[in-house]
Amino acid sequence: MYRLKLSLVVLISCLSVFPSFCQTWELYNSQYQLQSRLVYQSIFLLSESVKIGKTDSSLFLLNSQYQPSVNLEGDELYQYLEPWILVKNQKGIGAFHEYGQKVLPLEFEEIETYLNLLLARKGNEYWIYDRGKDKSSFLGEFDQAKITHNGQVIAQKSGKFFLPLSPNPSQGYLQLSDNEGDYLLAQTETGFGLINMEGRTILEPIIDSLIHTRGDFYYGYDEDQYLLIEGHPIRANVRYNSFHKITYENDLMLEYIHGKLRRVMEEDGILLDAVGMTEVNRIERDIYQVRFRDQKLGLLGKQGWLVQPTDSLEGIFNGKGGLFPAQKNGLFGFVNQRGEWKIEPEYQEVSTFSESIAAFKHGGFWGLMDSRGSILSSAQWNEIKGFSQNFALASKDQKWFLLDKSGHSIFEDGFDQISRTDGGYFLFSKNGKIGLANAQGKLLLEAEYDFVQREKSDLIIVRKNEKMGVISESGDVKLPLDYEEISIDQTTQQILARGTYQPIIVVEEEPIKQKRKRGQ
């Protein structure tokens, strides 16, 4: 008879952290040489310097060697908003600076960040942490509060709004609104005004109506005159005022004199002053079609006329390379800056030029032309996406193709989908699998992977059959497809590969000692 003795050959840390299995990470250098093995459930590479390791019971800030340096106390990483690490456990959310300093305990329901400020909420109670002062302060009880994009705090209570960080925190407002500029729009019983980043009034709230347009500019009306106002850290400036009507709709301001359209306005004044305008349409940001009584049509930009008004145009649109899509008798071609036809209007639709090539639609299909109007590819495509880095994407019969500048397809067979990646490379898919082509359209990896991510020529992360590995553009296997997850430390170019550590059970046979009989 024999007794079996079991020896579990495992790491001590593995036994203490993972009672059932271990997640181990292999750390490789840029030459794919194994440097060390790490035992974590997860590793998060949040930035060039911030690395976090998670076990079943703990969360750690890691040093450059991936060893625990600070216990973050939470059960999970809640959010990373540089430089703040928000962590969570059963008690609530807390905050650490990425250098490891604990700044808010794990007891809040919500934390909002802005540069060196943290706004924390527990119930209806709010606290603010200021890193410059390295101090947390109780703000008060509010129905709600938020940090604006310029670092002020707007709080609301009982239907009124307050600025608890301002010199006058008890001042109530009917409305306080944030916008893309550096100034808050404020409303009191006396009217509208503006407040700067420090919470000080730069425009007294006496304006009848005031709305934000863009940047630090505002459109207002007060005492029968229209105002264009620019914010300023000390005192706001009225940049333009008029007793004539100024309308503002869809980011378009127009001034009417004696009921007739006279001026196209910009944020702080007049963009165009012209007699005889009948219609202005904004077609994109800072681009306008302007029509006159004599039926001339021009294209206006921030710096003046992009296309001079001409009577041969029914429609005109923004272009590139000095050629602008234009319409006449329902068909499209291209005009130059003087409004002269350079490519006659013969097409159902056209695109703008990209890399001196444009798409045109004829007979319900799309083709390609050069800047002289010469046909590069006949109208045979259902869709064409513009050229970039010498190639365009085109679809036909529910397949996608890669077209070169001569209009020819690089691959004879189409793909279910093609997408561009960094460096001009292409990912393509067929039958649910993914492959890779380089910037010259050369096929590097056949469509046989579930996931492909190119980091550099000799580091392409792939996944196949639920396992991940690393291969090069030439097809050399750098790390076999044996891993559950692979991450790249962009700072050191080290490679983290996660697998599941299986404890090795060693069975040793040991004879059972027989009891001696009496007398032996």
Q: Can you walk me through this structure?
A:
This protein has 520 residues and is mostly beta strands. Among the domains are: 76 residues, no CATH class; 70 residues, Thrombin, subunit H; 96 residues, no CATH class. 1% of the residues lie in helices and 60% in strands. The strands form 15 sheets. It has a four-stranded antiparallel β-sheet with strand order 3-2-55-54. The chain has a four-stranded antiparallel β-sheet with strand order 4-5-6-7, with no helix packed on it. Strand 23 and strand 24 form a beta hairpin. The radius of gyration is 33 Å and the shape is flat. The protein starts with a strand and ends in a 9-residue tail after the last strand.
Q: Brief description of this entry?
A:
This is WG containing repeat-containing protein. The chain has 520 residues and is mainly beta. The protein contains one helix and 56 strands.
